[in-house]
Amino acid sequence: MSIVNIIANIFSFAKNTSETEDIYSNGIKWYPGIEHGNPPPFSSDSHQIHTKINKIDNTETTKKQSDWSVKSFDIPETEGKVRFHDLNLSNELMHALSDLNFKYCTPIQGLTLKDSIAGADILGKAQTGTGKTAAFLISIISRLLESDSCKRTDSPRALILAPTRELVLQIEQDAKKLLKYMNNVRILSLYGGTEYSKQKDKFNKCDPDIVVATPGRLLDFQKRQDIQLNRIETLVIDEADRMLDMGFIPDVRQIVYSTPHKDRRQTLFFSATMTDDVNRLAAQWTRNPVIAETEPEQVAVDSVDQKIYIITEQEKLKFLLKILSEATTEKVIIFANMRSKVRNLHEQLIKNGIDCDILSGEVSQNRRISTLKNFKNGNKKVLVATDVAGRGLHIDDISHVINFTLPENPEDYVHRIGRTGRAGKNGISISFACEEDSFYIPAIEEYLGEKLNCEYPEI
């Protein structure tokens, strides 16, 4: 397609797009997104379509998709399991699931996908590692395709709110894997700690159907009137309990009330715990939700060898250095409870010749991104992290998780050790328990439903 034709299509698209609006009681305008706009003149890489590279990439992707058939992704029916074949998903989405080797739904996916794809609200109790991210992404993508996502609007149609930058970036990466064979659905992440103008430029060029954002940065966009949320068809609130803990609910509430009324949007609400406060929020923001609850992560029991060493606070560093010197420690995450402890531990490891990185709320966003990249590709073998920074990390081949201090909350223990023993592989969890840490062991054992083996190390 020539540049002249592209420009002509752009003006034709702008001319033909119309808008209607409806005002409801709280004064917020609602625009039914599925009824407006024409197909875009080009794909999600529109601002670069003139380049030869992108033309080749799009051609190759289309060719790969046209050569693929769902018949080549043959998964047998199994009692008690839901296949993705059973959900009537698009061929493009099934192809992406095949590439990811997703054969059967996880429990949270099996409990929610049929209803959410049909348009129902969801109230899901699910922790990190249960497949909930894929559950809401598959639902969003399916509904956009069903309602003809080629009919473009000038504002997002799906919004995903998450508490941390790392989780936002992870959700975006997961979505791009699912959108691998689709040019007509676009996603963009918005998060703090990076230059606002650059994110604004990316947003304007991308014109995303799906936005995944942290509350603070999304409010920045709203206050500057750089984003409109009045055409949101699906709203996802992920890790609502963590949002409460981090004090984000006032921001989230402001964002929710700028989307269409809950009677005119779908809301998918997920939380690892269901406290009274969380349930009150769910009641305010959802309408007759399908309630789905999964059991706590069992990764600790199934695929992680858990070791607890009774040790003094003064002996911890020496024993940690001994463990890190062993050949079996390939890729290691070390958790501590507080930022100050993480910072101090990182400094001590550097002084002792351990090439490691740090991940906490004090680290700038640019450094966070480079830190995770270096850890994922193996340039750095050791990462020291806080719970908030480490939650939701999906990194392959982590051989060891080390709890330099045991967490006060048993769920955080499971979240931590769930970073290893993933994707059918075995992992090792090592916890140091000084006198203070030992008080947390009974609660962890009760949560896991098993006794943990505690021993004294040879230092």
Short description, anyone?
Helix content is 39%, strand content 14%. With 459 residues, it is α/β, with parallel strands linked by helices. The termini are far apart.
Write the layout of secondary structure elements.
Elements: H1 3-16, E1 22-23, E2 29-30, H2 52-66, H3 91-99, H4 107-117, E3 122-125, H5 132-146, E4 158-161, H6 165-178, E5 187-190, H7 196-206, E6 210-213, H8 215-223, E7 234-237, H9 240-245, H10 249-256, E8 266-271, H11 276-285, E9 290-293, H12 299-302, E10 304-310, H13 316-324, E11 332-335, H14 339-351, E12 356-359, H15 365-376, E13 382-385, H16 387-390, E14 400-403, H17 410-417, E15 427-433, H18 441-448, E16 454-455
Parallel strand pairs: 3-8, 3-9, 4-6, 4-7, 5-6, 7-8, 10-15, 10-16, 11-13, 11-14, 12-13, 14-15
Antiparallel strand pairs: 1-2
Helix pairs in contact: 4-5, 5-6, 8-10, 17-18
